[in-house]
Amino acid sequence: MEPNSTNGAVIEFRDVDYALPNGQPLLRGLNLQVRRGETLVLLGRSGSGKTTSLKLINRLLKPRGGEVRVDGADTAKSDVIRLRRSIGYVIQDIGLFPHLTVARNIGLIPRIEGWSSDRIDARVAELLQLVGLDGDVVSRYPHQLSGGQRQRVGVARALAADPAILLMDEPFGALDALTRDQLQREFLSLQRRLNKTVVFVTHDLREALRLASRIALMEAGRLVTVLSPQDFLRSSDPLAAAYLQAFGEGLNSVATRGTE
Amino acid sequence: MNAIHFFAQHHEEILELTLEHLWLVGISTLLAVLIGIPLGILSAHWPVWNKPVLGSANVIQTIPSLALFGFLLPVPWIGARADRLAILALTLYALLPVIRNTYTGIRGVDPSVVEAGRGMGLTGRQLLFQVELPLAVSVILSGVRVAVVVSVGLATIAAAIGAGGLGEFIFRGLAMVNNQLILAGAIPAAILALSADFSLGWLERRLQPQ
């Protein structure tokens, strides 16, 4: 893997613009750096540009202006397949392959990369344990799993080739409150062990405060501010204040990270 | 009864014409699959191709079969032999259900599954062969099934241009006003269509992703 760029940013947006093919701008002048090992949460309502920003990182979308750099290299000049395989990707709808078993879902990229089947089996078992699933789910199909189990498999699949970066697009959004709470807790303990660089999209302030090292607040295609959870709670920014008001009391106890 | 007597007497000819019929249908279906699936993939992935491809297949479908045989007659090489001509005509008719179902099957794959695959770093080819086609296979197969069933019926008309098949009996029976001869063509054709429908339907259900 290439050495990171001078300022220690693993992912860097430089004056990035993005617009739909019909010309409607979705993202304007985004400048943002994601540091190694942090969990950067992109917080905003729908249409604020957070998912767009995420997809610009693994080049599912191409910027109209500016550049996105991953590990110091402009993604426009990188091999897009190599780039994507070096980045784990988890989406809200999970997108497990319905015709493949859990083991084959997780092992797909390793298999394409030519790993031996022994090594793949071992990796699958290791990952299932890591995300808290019983080994006997390996031969099941996605439709035979619960929502929480599916999302865990989705995370395991994203981690299969041991990427240094993880992109998560509202991964817990479709889950019931109890399962979401559990998966958030597991995410924190997983992140303490694995120390990945994570970019996490959510519209849920509570989730952002709980998981983030830093929160990037977005609105209408622009980055409003980047704050640690602690600073977010004390922020005088009108949009941050509006969020705090909308989500109500008791948020202080949620923010557990970013105190270092 | 004399119908049984008739079938017993003509069983060799019935068998021969049935095999001929199967050959016409089999080759034309194979060609339609080889041409139609790539065209279906093309129109599913590049929407600009959608209208011209499905449009032409639709237009072909509207040409009456006898007229199509007539149109193809002056074509060099093809028109020289009746079986070539019949196979080409049957292939053209079989294209529409194959193309349309390939298109529908691939477009019907859950977009989040495709996006996850692309995001994971599957190449276009890997996505097609390991995700899209396996998930679309039962829909594609149901198009093939429609094509086969329609072809079995249409192929009886190929006898009008001398391409053989079970239509021989039907046309002979019509000319001689002999119902037994017509049935000697129609019954095996119906059995062929039903068994193709049944076996491909079974395969379709087996390949249906959960």
Task: Report on this structure.
The complex is a heterodimer of chains A (260) and B (210). Chain A has 260 residues and is of the alpha/beta class. In chain A, the strands form two sheets. A six-stranded mixed β-sheet of chain A has the order 6-7-8-3-9-10, sandwiched between helices. The radius of gyration of chain A is 18 Å and the shape is globular. Chain A contains nine helices and ten strands. Chain A has helices spanning 50-57, 80-85, 102-112, 117-130, 147-159, 177-194, 205-211, 229-234, 238-247, and strands at residues 9-19, 25-35, 39-43, 65-70, 73-74, 87-91, 165-169, 197-202, 214-219, 222-227. In chain A, helix 3 runs parallel beside helix 5. In chain A, 36% of the residues lie in helices and 24% in strands. Chain A starts with 8 loop residues before the first strand and ends in a 13-residue tail after the last helix. Residues 1-6 of chain A have low confidence and may be disordered. Chain B is an all-alpha fold. Chain B has helices at 2-9, 11-45, 47-62, 65-72, 82-107, 111-120, 124-154, 167-176, 179-207. In chain B, helix 2 (11-45) runs antiparallel to helix 3 and helix 2 runs antiparallel to helix 7. Chain A binds chain B through residues 55, 58, 60, 81-85, 89, 91, 93-99, 108-109, 112, 141, 143-144, 154, 157-158, 167, and chain B through 110, 112-123, 126, 130-131, 134-135, 209-210.
